[in-house]
Structure formats: structure tokens, C-alpha cells
């Protein structure tokens, strides 16, 4: 069921840039050996209650052969299709947002369903289509944390994101993700602290993406 604690947000604008990078060492997966790839950087300006605006950030690698493993494809295909998925997700999300604020989960659900249909209509894999969904999902979660000052653990435990597991899997109806969480996060996880403040990242000096 919908959460009454969900934070209503409205994505206002988005900017995507690509930066070419080289790996520190070759990374092999399947038949692919990765030595260089572009990184997509995403900034989404999100408006919360009271008109407060923050930037949600996300980033990921456009890795060859990771999202589409069909034979007889080139890396040029991968980059073009992943860039197109980002552009389509941006267009659809901002169109949904123009109709009014809603929860992060609500935006994610409609965007996910759209990207699946869009990908199949264009003979892309579901994973390729939802590369765009995943990027904007992460940016909205980042924005929700900045708007509320809450950690990711708190966002999930208090259902600030408006998660509705039963809407996608009926057998999860009535179950809350908070039931699977520890009472509090670990003090440390690797080299990062879960309670660290959400920070603002400057734009790298790289060109805007052209999906």
C-alpha cells in the first residue's frame, strides 16, 4: 500500500555528460577485456516540499558487452544504445514530473515500465533500456537524502522513498523493507561511513551527452 511518509518530489531539469576514462588495469568479463570506457555523469535538479531544490547525482560506466551480450555487435552499438536509453529516460521522467510531484518509487515504477516497452520496440535488451531508469532512480534517491538530511538507511527504514513492494510482487503485499533492515547501520562499510553527509559534486570538464 502507498506510504503516507513518502516524500513528494518533482524533477525539474536534468543534465547528462560523458567522460572518457581508462582503467587502472585490464578488466575481463566473458569475452570482453575492458581497458577504457566513457563514464556517464547525471545531475537532476529536484524540487521538494516548500519549493526547496537540490541536485541529485548519479554516474555509471557505459561498459561494452555488459548490457547486451548478443553476438556480432560492436562497442559503437553499445554506446549509442545506452546513450539513447539515458535520453529517453530523461525525456519521460521530466514529462511525468510536469504533471506534479510524487514519490521516488512512483516515478521509478512508471519509468521502469516505459523503458522496458521502449527497449523492446527498438530491439534493445531490457537491461539496456533500464540503464536509463537506474541512473535517474539513483539521482532521485540522492536528492531525497539531501532534501531530508537522512541517510540511505533512514530513507528506506522510514519509507521516505514510498516503496510499495506489493505493487510489483503481490506476495510482498503488506511487507515493509524496514523489516529486513538492522535497527541502525554499521558504523563503517569499507572506507565509507553510512552516516556521512550528502555532498554536492562539481561538474567534470567533459562534454554534454548527445543521445
Primary descriptors:
single chain, 211 residues, alpha+beta, Enolase-like, domain 1, three-stranded antiparallel β-sheet, 5 helices, 3 strands
Would you give an account of this structure?
By secondary structure, the chain is an alpha+beta fold. It has a domain at 10-151: Enolase-like, N-terminal domain (Enolase-like, domain 1, 2-Layer Sandwich), CATH 3.30.390. It has helices at 75-97, 104-121, 126-148, 152-157, 165-168; strands at 10-29, 32-47, 53-61. Strands 1-2-3 form a three-stranded antiparallel sheet. Helix 1 (75-97) crosses helix 2 (104-121) and helix 1 (75-97) packs across helix 3 (126-148). The longest helix is centred in the middle third of the chain and has 23 residues, at 75-97. It is globular and about 50 Å long.
Please, what is the oligomeric state?
single chain
Strand content: 15-25%
CATH superfamily of the domain at 10-151: Enolase-like, N-terminal domain
Mean pLDDT: 88
* Percent helix: 25-40%
CATH C-level of the domain at 10-151? Alpha Beta
Can you write the helix and strand succession as a string?
EEEHHHHH
Q: In CATH terms, what is the architecture of the domain at 10-151?
A: 2-Layer Sandwich
- Order of strands in the sheet with the most strands? 1-2-3
Inertia-based shape: globular
C-alpha Rg (nearest Å): 18 Å
Low-pLDDT runs: 191-199
Distance between the termini: 36 Å
Class from helix and strand fractions = alpha+beta
Amino acid at each position: 500500500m502507498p506510504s503516507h511518509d513518502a516524500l513528494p518530489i518533482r524533477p525539474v531539469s536534468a543534465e547528462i555528460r560523458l567522460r572518457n576514462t581508462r582503467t587502472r588495469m585490464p578488466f575481463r568479463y566473458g569475452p570482453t577485456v575492458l581497458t577504457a570506457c566513457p563514464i556517464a555523469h547525471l545531475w537532476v535538479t529536484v524540487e521538494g516540499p516548500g519549493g526547496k531544490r537540490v541536485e541529485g547525482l548519479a554516474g555509471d560506466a557505459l561498459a561494452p558487452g555488459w548490457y547486451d551480450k548478443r553476438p556480432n555487435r560492436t562497442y559503437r552499438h553499445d554506446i549509442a544504445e545506452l546513450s539513447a536509453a539515458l535520453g529517453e529516460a530523461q525525456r519521460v521522467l521530466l514529462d511525468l514530473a510536469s504533471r506534479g510531484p510524487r514519490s521516488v518509487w512512483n516515478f521509478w515504477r512508471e519509468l521502469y515500465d516505459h523503458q522496458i516497452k521502449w527497449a523492446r520496440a527498438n530491439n534493445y535488451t531490457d537491461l539496456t533500456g533500464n540503464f536509463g531508469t537506474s541512473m535517474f532512480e539513483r539521482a532521485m534517491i540522492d536528492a531525497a537524502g539531501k532534501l531530508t538530511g537522512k541517510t540511505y538507511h533512514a530513507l528506506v527504514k522510514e519509507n521516505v522513498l514510498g516503496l510499495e513492494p506489493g505493487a510489483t510482487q503481490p506476495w510482498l503485499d503488506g511487507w515493509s523493507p524496514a523489516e529486513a533492515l538492522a535497527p541502525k547501520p554499521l558504523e563503517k562499510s569499507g572506507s565509507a561511513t553510512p552516516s556521512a553527509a550528502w555532498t554536492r559534486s562539481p561538474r567534470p570538464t567533459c562534454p554534454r551527452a548527445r543521445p
